[in-house]
Amino acid sequence: MRRTLLIGTALAFGLLFIQPIQAEVKLPAIVSSNMVLQRNTTVQLWGWADAGEKITIKPSWLQEPLRLTADNDGNWAVSVKTTNTKASQIVNIKSNSSDITLENIVFGEVWLCSGQSNMSQSFKGYTGQPTFGASLAVTKSRNPNLRLFTVERATSKTPLKNVGEHRPWQMASPKNVLDFSAIAYFFGQQLQEILDVPVGLIHTSWGGTPIESWMSMDMMSTYKKIDLDTFNDRKQQSVPTVLYNAMINPLIPYTIKGTLWYQGESNRGKPDAYREFMPALVKDWRAKWQIGDFPFYYVQIAPYFYNNPDAYQKPENTAFLREAQLQALEDIPNSGMATTMDVGEEFCIHPARKKEVADRLLFNALNQTYGYTSIDCAFPVFDSLEVKDGGAILKFKNAETGIYSYNGLEGFEIAGENRVFYPAKAEIIKRQDVFVRSEKVKNPVAVRYAWRNWIKGTLFDVNLLPASSFRTDNWNNATQAKD
Fold first, then answer.
1. What is the pLDDT of residues 321-376, one digit of tens each?
2. What whole-number distance in Å separates Cα of residue 64 and Cα of residue 49?
């Protein structure tokens, strides 16, 4: 009798622990204390809970709480209007099973920073490859109004809802800035100072990765069939879509102001494909975020040796990739490009002068996004060629106040109808045009500038924005004259 009673009691007690237990409300990593929410707009807060769970959200800046119910899959999301106040805020999220308070939230400008190793490069630099100005920048970095969030490297064959390893939102300080993207920091630090509002930087990049890895399956499948059935290696970061899945998709729909992008070296050798992929990536991300054509500012890859000094007409000549990046401006609304013809290093693919690159991205943002129209952001772009006096006169757009060279122009070549390019003498005339000539080309037809892997740019506007490498022809069978 006693044994039966004990068994019955044990069974009853055990049943208490097999009843359904309500799951706690979960938030994505990007939605947390210390975050920066885009100011003066409508932002998204989202997460997960039990299907049908009722949730109450109380933002401190709203008079009335927001009430919602998780859908049948346990997903929930709510739109919240933000203001322009500089005061820190809190958000309380409550359900039957949860009571979460997010603290020290500020409203400001949020920028997503992505790409490959030149975007990843921190103030530590790489082995034997420094970041100029690192020590002073890190020393002066303490700033509660500059917030940093880092997505650590990860891959996935399916789109993830949340990031894996990450560094959560933190206020900038010498400790956490040291390992952060130098370009992103230089951009954000100056933007914060100029606008005098909080700035949030979301860094998500991976060195040595092609653009295809950062595009969604929806977009990539319009170009070729992607089969990820056999994908199981975390080191396969160059596989199409796997970085988008793990390092971009989990951030959506966190409201951003715009994007900074520094990538391209891993796509050298296939400039025609990159010419298509670059606008496609921007279209892809904008479609996924659903906040319109947000600003997209990117960096043109810098000159570098690439162990191939003889490449000229072949795609291995990265002037073709730089040309693809230049042409992409035509197809990407609300975009801008930072040229780097003067900051490259012959035997280092990671230029140390990261601040100058960040400055040029900043000029684009200030001019085109924030209304500082007096700030020049547009570099000289070839406009027209006129044959005259045995040479060629080149005219440029975006050179309203003239063009400039520190110590004379170099890197120009000129060709006649035989499509053989000879080294040419070039000089600035009337402070606005360039006259190019060679005694070996009596009847010039075309001119190229900086058309090789490694070269030091010499052509600037008066605000010292360097011109991209360019060509006035579209020949696919040109050659260089041999010495």
1. 999 999 999 999 999 999 999 999 999 999 999 999 999 999 999 999 999 999 99
2. 22
Residue 14 domain flag = no
Q: What per-residue string of b and e applies to 385-421 under the rule 16 or more CB within 10 Å gives b?
A: beeeeebbbbebeebeeebbeeeebbbbbbbbeeebb
The pLDDT of 158-168, averaged and rounded, is 98
Residue pair 465/407 in contact (Cβ under 8 Å)? The answer is: no
Instruction: Tell which of 57, 75, 106 closes a domain.
Output: 106
Answer yes or no: is pLDDT of 126 > 90: yes
Does residue 104 sit in helix, strand or coil? strand
Confidence of residue 9 (pLDDT cuts 50, 70, 90): very low
Average pLDDT (13-23) is 47
pLDDT above 70 covers a percentage of the chain that reads: 95
Residue at token pair 């997505």: 151
Indicate the DSSP class of residue 146: E
Query: Residue 196 CB: number of other CB atoms within 10 A?
Result: 8
Report the alpha-carbon distance of residue 314 to residue 319 in Å, rounded. Answer: 10
φ, ψ of residue 94 in degrees (nearest 5): -130, 140
Cα 123 to Cα 243: distance, rounded to the nearest angstrom:
24
Are 167 and 248 in a shared domain? yes
User: Which residue is associated with the tokens 């109450």?
Assistant: 56
174 and 313 co-located in one domain: yes
- What pLDDT was estimated at residue 12? 42
Cβ atoms of 371 and 295 closer than 8 Å: no
Closest by Cα among 74, 10, 17 to 46:
74
Q: How far apart are CA 383 and CA 409, in angstroms?
A: 18
Distance CA 360, CA 376 (A): 9
pTM of the model: 0.94
Residue 9 covered by a domain: no
> How many structural domains does the chain have?
3
DSSP letter at 200 equals E
**Dist CA 421 CA 414 (whole Å):** 5
- Asked whether the predicted pLDDT for residue 7 surpasses 60, the reply is no
